[in-house]
Amino acid sequence: MKLLADENIPSSVVRTLADGGYDIVWIRTKAPGISDLDVMRYACQEKRIILTYDKDFGELVMKDNLCPSAGIILFRLPLKNPPQIAQYILDILKSRTDWEGHFSVVEEKRIRMRPLPKR
């Protein structure tokens, strides 16, 4: 699974996922300051699933019918220390194999998934 971490994803998460064997690119180092729309374009070109804390991606996908080919995972997690968040996100990603093609919302006690709209 190829991942694209939005700028708001902590560096500890990016490192933990890379160390866990994931192919991950971080917007903060690849193209800092680009718009959400450009993040989505990049994800589509690279066939990467977006990891983000930004709710705006949901609106872009569901209301404006813009979607990356691979998917979006929106994290709605309480603030904890970075190593705990990183390990939690790694565990969550490993817990499923059906992230692609979905807009997923990961909360502390549940995961909600909706298929991405067809283009």
Notes on the structure:
The protein contains 5 helices and 6 strands, in the order E-H-E-H-H-E-H-E-H-E-E. The mean pLDDT is 90. Helices cover 37% and strands 24% of the residues. Helix 1 (11-19) packs across helix 5 (82-94). It has one domain (2-115): Rossmann fold (3-Layer(aba) Sandwich). The chain is of the alpha/beta class and 119 residues long. Strand 3 (49-52), helix 4 and strand 4 form a beta-alpha-beta unit. The two termini are 22 Å apart.
Write a brief caption for the model.
By secondary structure, the chain is of the alpha/beta class. It is 37% helix and 24% strand. It has helices at 11-19, 27-30, 36-46, 56-62, 82-94; strands spanning 2-5, 23-26, 49-52, 71-76, 102-107, 111-115.
The share of residues in helices is 25-40%
Assign the CATH architecture. Answer: 3-Layer(aba) Sandwich
Tell me the fraction of residues in β-strands, as a range.
Answer: 15-25%
First and last CA, distance? 22 Å
Q: What is the number of domains?
A: 1
Brief descriptors of the model:
globular; Rossmann fold; alpha/beta; 6-stranded mixed β-sheet; 37% helix; single chain; 6 strands; 119 residues
What's the SSE blueprint?
Elements: E1 2-5, H1 11-19, E2 23-26, H2 27-30, H3 36-46, E3 49-52, H4 56-62, E4 71-76, H5 82-94, E5 102-107, E6 111-115
Helix pairs in contact: 1-5
